[in-house]
Amino acid sequence: MPVALITGASRGLGRVTARALADRGWSLVVDARRDADLADATREIPRVVAIPGDVTDPGHRADLVAAVQRLGPLDVLVNNASSLGPSPLPPLREYGLGQLRRVYETNVLAPLALIQLLADSLGAASGAVINVSSDAAVEAYQGWGGYGSAKAALDQVTAVLAAEEPGLRCYAFDPGDMRTEMAQQAFPGEDISDRPEPETVVPALLRLIDERPSSGRYRAADLAIAAPAEVRS
Length: 233
Prior knowledge:
It contains eight helices and seven strands, in the order βαβαβαβαβαβααβα. By secondary structure, the chain is an alpha/beta fold.
């Protein structure tokens, strides 16, 4: 059965993606920083190895890789774990460099580190890397300089990886606005109930996994309405 590693799987898009793949019979390795939340998210999921920890910790990443290796070649790596940074979102001229460094560690360096560690396993399965991006990576929003620039860097990592690793499918996946804890942190005190639930994004993400179009940047909104994608040979 296919194997997926999903980071940041205790809440939001990571949680519902893990559930969707489990329902399809996949074996999963998942993580999240909050032990209790991760246990709750995976309580009724079969064939799952849940490892609490922080993706910026090399020791934790080693534990994830070891768990994947016990299951077999890795079909899909979903780098979903992200850090918004400080809330309320500060302008760049006031952004603490230590805080910015942490955002980049989580959103850029940790995903790349996992890709480096798992490249051979992904290659053995002709696998796919899905790096969860954001519209803030391509649009200039006030206050989003830290998170947005980190996601822009992740998009470029994805694009270069695709050029260097033709045997893999490499996707920067922009889910669009969702009703998540991170979105609430980005807009403290505001009502975000009009945003769609993460479950509405899962069909687009599954389409990437199923059809394996050419590597690139994909928006969930486009995947929901576009014509069938080119399937890899």
